[in-house]
Amino acid sequence: MTRPDDFILIFSMLTCFIMRFLQKFCLALIFACAPAGFAPAGAVEAIYQVTQTGIAVVEITAQFETRPDGYWMRSVSRAVGIGRLFAPHEIRSEVEGAWRAEGVAPQRFQAEGNWRGDARRTVLLYREGMPQPLELEPPEGRTNELVPLPARRGAIDMLSAFALMSRTVTQTGRCDLGGPIFDGRRRLDWSSRTVGSARVTHAGQEIESLQCGLESRLVAGVRHGDDPVRATQPRPAMAWLAKVDPRLPPIPIRVEFASTIFGTMRMELQKVR
Fold first, then answer.
1. Which of 9-18, 95-104, 181-190 shows the lowest per-residue confidence on average (mean pLDDT)?
2. Are 75 and 89 in contact (CB under 8 A)?
3. How far apart are CA 176 and CA 212, in angstroms?
4. Structure confidence by residue, pLDDT tens digits, 244-269
5. Which residues, in sequence order, are CB contacts of 3 under 8 Å at separation 6+?
6. Cβ–Cβ contacts within 10 Å for residue 193, how many?
7. Is 38 exposed, middle or buried (0-12, 13-18, 19+ CB in 10 A)?
8. In CA terms, which of 35, 76, 172, 225 is 20 to 30 Å from 113?
9. What is the C-alpha separation between 189 and 221, in angstroms, rounded?
10. What are 258's strand-pairing partners?
């Protein structure tokens, strides 16, 4: 079974030194103290189902809000049906960030929940392009090899990579981009390339979509006990993005990728509300 954080990946970077430091310190303090779980009033919700050889194994609920100055996203991934036997989990992730000319600048990322009965919690704050762990449960180094500090610089979280892709498609009509991702324990390289336009069936009708080839590769933070050669192999996927709601930028309506066990896994948009 593929790990839940891989699904989400298929789902994203002032004046004087003292003033800049104080502004960033206060902003980090606000985010650190702010309670999670409150969605902005303008958030839109999309529900996805992940199937393996046609059998539902995971449900993902994603909420989005984009503003002229930034973005907010939340996702909840939970095992359903037979997936609860092989990979029981419920993981909640949330990010808030700002748009930059060169891409995105996440400000606070949080993920918590359980994976096969083990409690997980990650809180990252960002300063000067460096993700800084505020909370990690289990502690850093216990479950995965340590990621060197230089390898973390400039890395964003998975939800911000998703937001960047949607924004790039909106602005250019293409999905040619990539960069580093750090989730608190693992450092990955990800990339997306434009394949072309394609008509796909969604909600009972054919719609025009942008087909994008995706790839992610673990470069640091191999889980203890995993085979490093296998763990660092590139993981390709194919995604189809389309604008299905006037309140949203183009979002994936279908993603297909190989299972780590057998067969093909497919994530499909079920509804937007």
1. 9-18
2. no
3. 8
4. 999 989 999 999 998 766 678 999 99
5. 87, 115
6. 14
7. exposed
8. 225
9. 12
10. 264
Report the C-alpha gap between 218 and 182 in whole angstroms. 10
Model pLDDT, residue 8: 44
Determine the pLDDT at residue 41.
Answer: 67
pLDDT of 17 strictly over 80: no
Q: How far apart are CA 268 and CA 172, in angstroms?
A: 24
Q: Which of 42, 37, 45, 152 is nearest to 106 (CA)?
A: 152
Q: Which residues of 52-86 are buried (b: 16+ CB within 10 A; e: fewer)?
A: beeeebbbbebbbbbeeebbbbbbbbbbeeebeee
Residue type, 168: T
Does residue 35 register a pLDDT over 80? no
pLDDT (tens digit per residue) in 201-224: 998 999 999 999 999 999 999 999
What are the angstrom distances between the C-alpha of 127 and each of 124, 133, 181?
A: 10, 11, 15
Name the phi and psi angles at 263, rounded to 5: 75, -175
3-state helix, strand, coil split of the chain in percent (to 5) is: 20, 50, 30
SS3 readout for 163-228:
HHHHHHHHHHCCCCEEEEEECCCCEEEEEEEEEEEEEEEECCEEEEEEEEEEEEEEEECCECCCCH
Do residues 125 and 135 lie in contact, with contact meaning Cβ atoms separated by under 8 Å?
Answer: no
Greater model confidence, 67 or 20: 67
Six token digits for residue 188: 């990955």
Q: What are phi and psi of 34, to 5 degrees?
A: -70, 135
Tens digit of each residue's pLDDT (9 = 90 or more) over 48-58? 999 988 899 99
Amino acid at 144: N
Do you find a cis peptide bond into 138, omega within 30 degrees of 0? yes
Q: Which domain holds residue 248?
A: 4-272
